[in-house]
C-alpha cells in the first residue's frame, strides 16, 4: 500500500491522468483509463521498501515544516492581536500617513517581464506574487509604503521598499515614519481588520479606511514587535521553501530506482 501511494502521488501518474482527462470546464479523470495505468513494480521487494523508506522520510520533512508554519503563524497572530492591549496613542490612519490614495489605470507602457526600459514594478490587488502585475518605465510611488488590496482578497497588506506603480484601486499608504514605521503600520492594519464596503463584490475604499483607528506605541516598541513578527515570518518562508522542494526530491528518488 505504501509503495502504491508513492507511485500514485508521483509526476508519472499525474501526467498520465492529465493526458487522459475528460471534460473542458471541469477536467476529470477517465475511470477506465485509471484502471489501465501501468504501475512500475520492481520484482525485488527490497527496492520497493527502499522507495517507501526514502519517500517516507521526505513526507516526514514535509509534515514537520507544515507544522512549523502552523506554529509560527499562530505566534504571528498572537503578536498582532497583542497590539489591541499595547500602551500607545490612538490615531486615525489618515493622520499617520503623508499620502493615502488608490491606484488608477495600468500604464500604457507596460511589460509582463522586467526589461531594460520597463523595470518598475506594477502592483495590483491580489496575493499571488504579492500582487505583481508587470513592469513599466516610470514610478508613481517612490517612498517606502504599505499597499492594501482593495478588491478580491481585501486587506492583504505588503510593505513596499522600492519605487512602483499601483493600479486597479490598490490602496497606498505612505506613513509618516516619525510617528509610525511602515512595517508596524502593516501589523496595526492587520490587527484592525477590514470591512467590505462593496456589497456582493468585496472592496475597500480610501474614504472608508482613512478613519480607521490604530494604536501607535513608541518607535522602540514598534521595532520590537516588527522584529518578533519578522522572526516568525522567516520561519514560515524557509519552511515553505523546504515543502516546495519535497515533490521534486520524491520524484528524484523514484527516478533513481525506476529508470
Oligomer: single chain
Radius of gyration: 24 Å
Helix vs. strand class: alpha+beta
Q: How do the strands line up in the largest sheet?
A: 2-9-6-7
Main β-sheet: number of strands, strand sense, barrel status? 4 strands, antiparallel
Give a short summary of the structure.
Helix content is 44%, strand content 15%.
Describe this structure in words.
By secondary structure, the chain is of the alpha+beta class. 44% of the residues lie in helices and 15% in strands. It is built from seven helices and ten strands. The protein has a four-stranded antiparallel β-sheet, covered by helices on one side. A hairpin with an 8-residue loop joins strand 4 (120-123) and strand 5. Helix 4 (45-81) runs antiparallel to helix 7 (219-258). It is elongated, with a radius of gyration of 24 Å. The chain starts with a helix and ends with a helix. The model has no long low-confidence stretch (mean pLDDT 91).
Amino acid at each position: 500500500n505504501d509503495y502504491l501511494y508513492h507511485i500514485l502521488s508521483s509526476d508519472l501518474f499525474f501526467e498520465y491522468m492529465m493526458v487522459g482527462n475528460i471534460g473542458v470546464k471541469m477536467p476529470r479523470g477517465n475511470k477506465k483509463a485509471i484502471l489501465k495505468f501501468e504501475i512500475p513494480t520492481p520484482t525485488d521487494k527490497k527496492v520497493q521498501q527502499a522507495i517507501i523508506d526514502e519517500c517516507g522520510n521526505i513526507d516526514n520533512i514535509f509534515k514537520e515544516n507544515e507544522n512549523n508554519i502552523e506554529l509560527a503563524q499562530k505566534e504571528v497572530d498572537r503578536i498582532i492581536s497583542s497590539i489591541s492591549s499595547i500602551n500607545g496613542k490612538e490615531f486615525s490612519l489618515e493622520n499617520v500617513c503623508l499620502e493615502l490614495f488608490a491606484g488608477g489605470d495600468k500604464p500604457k507602457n507596460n511589460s509582463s517581464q522586467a526589461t531594460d526600459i520597463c523595470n518598475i514594478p506594477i502592483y495590483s490587488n491580489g496575493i499571488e506574487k504579492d500582487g505583481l502585475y508587470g513592469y513599466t518605465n516610470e514610478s508613481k510611488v517612490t517612498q517606502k509604503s504599505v499597499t492594501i488590496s482593495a478588491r478580491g482578497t481585501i486587506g492583504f497588506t505588503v510593505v513596499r521598499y522600492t519605487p512602483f506603480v499601483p493600479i486597479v484601486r490598490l490602496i497606498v499608504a505612505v506613513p509618516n515614519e516619525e510617528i509610525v514605521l511602515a512595517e508596524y503600520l502593516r501589523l496595526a492594519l492587520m490587527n484592525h481588520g477590514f470591512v467590505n464596503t462593496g456589497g456582493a463584490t468585496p472592496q475597500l475604499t480610501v474614504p472608508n479606511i482613512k478613519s480607521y483607528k490604530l494604536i501607535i506605541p513608541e518607535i522602540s516598541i514598534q521595532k520590537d514587535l516588527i522584529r518578533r513578527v519578522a522572526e516568525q515570518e522567516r520561519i514560515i518562508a524557509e519552511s515553505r521553501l523546504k515543502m516546495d522542494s519535497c515533490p521534486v526530491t520524491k520524484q528524484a528518488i523514484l527516478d533513481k530506482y525506476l529508470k
